[in-house]
């Protein structure tokens, strides 16, 4: 990509109280709260950053930067490329939420590391550097970075008995086939749905939107 800021894919969701509670339960059940990226998690981590600021930094709004690590077995989850990047703002008073999907190949300025694809920021400097790169792109500094591995995604989805998504077009990849329509996905299917980009009309932009669907589902 060249010239100006990369495009962002935006998706807005209304989060019912029940879904918000489920999300919080999942954080408690699967997350390790760590002060920095020097303590690697097994599958999932929730890392607290400094107080959020930027767009809509109201006391009722909590910003999560949700990252899907592409770490393979034996690789550190918090120092591998971020395969999925979703910025989630949750208003804990109204139970509304907004998601901002950032395609992983967005070419941005990474503090201290020059210009590169934004998914490389976690390799260079862990979750904190990724948060700084996202802040430079969006103007939003997250309160927390939530990181999961491939296995972590499957466990969380199976833990809530699946997620509902809308498949807009036939998707065939990663040993999975999805027909258009409303579908309830298990953990393995959800992971494939979040990773497929080949054959999508807008490539990585559509994949980022699909990842946002999983968060809303």
Protein model, in words:
The protein is α+β, with helices and mostly antiparallel strands. The chain folds into two domains: about 10-150, Nucleotidyltransferase, domain 5, CATH 3.30.420.590; about 155-215, 3-Layer(aba) Sandwich (Aminopeptidase), CATH 3.40.630.190. Helices cover about 30% and strands about 30% of the residues. The chain is built from five helices and 15 strands. It has helices spanning about 15-30, 120-140, 150-160, 185-195, 205-215; strands at about 10-15, 35, 45-50, 55, 60-70, 80-90, 95-100, 105-110, 115, 140, 145-150, 165, 170-175, 175-180, 180-185. The strands form five sheets. Strands 1-7-6-5-11-3-2 form a seven-stranded mixed beta sheet, sandwiched between helices. A two-stranded antiparallel ribbon has the order 4-10. Helix 3 (about 150-160) crosses helix 4 and helix 4 (about 185-195) packs antiparallel against helix 5 (about 205-215). Mean pLDDT is about 75; it is low at about 1-40.
Portion of residues in beta strands equals: 25-35%
Main-sheet strand order equals 1-7-6-5-11-3-2
CATH class designation of the largest domain: Alpha Beta
Would you list the SSEs in sequence order as H and E? Answer: EHEEEEEEEEHEEHEEEEHH
| Reported CATH architecture of the largest domain | 2-Layer Sandwich
Quick check: average pLDDT?
A: 77
User: What name does the CATH topology of the largest domain carry?
Assistant: Nucleotidyltransferase, domain 5
> How many structural domains can be distinguished in the coordinates?
2
Query: Radius of gyration, Cα only, in angstroms?
Result: 16 Å
Helical fraction equals 25-40%
Question: Structural class of the helix and strand makeup?
Answer: alpha+beta
Query: What is the rounded distance between the termini?
Result: 31 Å
- Count of DSSP H/I helices: 5
Q: Give me the count of strands.
A: 15
**Apparent shape:** globular
Largest sheet: 7 strands, mixed
Uncertain spans: 1-42
């Amino acid at each position: 990509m060249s010239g100006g800021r990369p495009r962002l894919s935006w998706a807005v969701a209304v989060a019912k109280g029940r879904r918000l509670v489920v999300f919080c339960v999942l954080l408690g059940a699967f997350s390790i709260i760590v002060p920095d990226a020097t303590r690697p998690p097994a599958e999932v981590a929730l890392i607290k950053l400094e107080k959020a600021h930027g767009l809509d930094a109201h006391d009722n709004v909590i910003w999560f930067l949700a990252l899907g690590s592409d770490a393979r077995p034996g690789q550190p989850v918090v120092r591998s490329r971020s395969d999925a990047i979703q910025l989630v703002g949750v208003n804990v008073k109204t139970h509304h939420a907004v998601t901002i999907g950032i395609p992983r190949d967005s070419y941005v300025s990474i503090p201290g590391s020059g210009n590169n694809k934004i998914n490389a920021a976690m390799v260079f400097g862990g979750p904190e550097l990724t948060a700084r790169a996202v802040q430079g792109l969006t103007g939003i500094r997250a309160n927390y970075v939530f990181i999961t591995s491939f296995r972590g995604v499957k466990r969380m989805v199976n833990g809530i008995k699946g997620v509902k998504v809308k498949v807009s077009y036939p998707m065939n990849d990663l040993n999975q086939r999805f027909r258009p329509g409303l579908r309830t996905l298990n953990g393995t299917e959800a992971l494939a749905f979040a990773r497929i980009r080949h054959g999508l009309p807008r490539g990585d932009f559509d994949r980022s939107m699909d990842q946002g669907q999983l968060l809303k589902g």
